[in-house]
Amino acid sequence: MKNNLKNLGLVLKITLQVFSIIGILFLLGLYSITKLLNLHFDLFIVMIYPCGICFLYLVYQFINLFDSLKNNNPFCFENVKRLSNSMICSLLICILVLIALIISIFYEYYSLQLKVAVGFISILFFAFGIALLILSELFKQATMYKEENDLTI
């Protein structure tokens, strides 16, 4: 069972590392991509940069979480901190996406479907942030129990 968790942690870590590289390349080439597709590079599109950076930080936190899973040490206070940082980052993305939604209102060439989708993405990141808060508290409690149990053995 432990070997399967190590393998799963390693596969997920590598997958997220590849995703991070693709994300960085996308952010670096976003301006060229919008020009190539003949899209307006306005404030709405510019909001992708801070959201993308926050999302890459979120992926980085999860890479570290899976690394601790690979090392058979998932219940530690570092992971509690990582989950807490991820929660803050997720809520920050939620706020940034809401700002992008407000900006999109002033541009008439963005469709209602896009505005609804952006609003839904904001709600998703808010819910994800709340889930990470709960998970952080669960990990905190489990880590405290683990350390207490380690002291009694």
Instruction: Report the portion of residues in β strands.
Output: under 5%
Q: Regions with pLDDT < 50 over 5+ consecutive residues?
A: none
Helix content: over 70%
Number of helices: 5
Radius of gyration: 19 Å
Give the SSE order as H and E letters: HHHHH
Number of strands: 0
User: Distance between the terminal alpha carbons, to the nearest Å?
Assistant: 23 Å
Instruction: Identify the quaternary structure here.
Output: single chain
User: How is the main sheet built?
Assistant: none
3D shape: elongated
Structural class: mainly alpha
Describe the structure.
With about 150 residues, the protein is mainly alpha-helical. It has helices spanning about 1-35, 45, 50-70, 75-105, 110-150. Helix 1 (about 1-35) packs antiparallel against helix 3 (about 50-70), helix 3 (about 50-70) runs antiparallel to helix 4 and helix 4 runs antiparallel to helix 5 (about 110-150). The longest helix has about 40 residues, at about 110-150. The chain is elongated, with a radius of gyration of 19 Å.
Task: Draw up the topology in text.
Layout: H1 2-36, H2 43-46, H3 48-70, H4 77-105, H5 112-152
Helix pairs in contact: 1-3, 3-4, 4-5
Summarize the structure.
This protein has 153 residues and is mainly α. Helix content is 86%, strand content 0%.
Task: Throw out a few tags for this protein.
mainly alpha
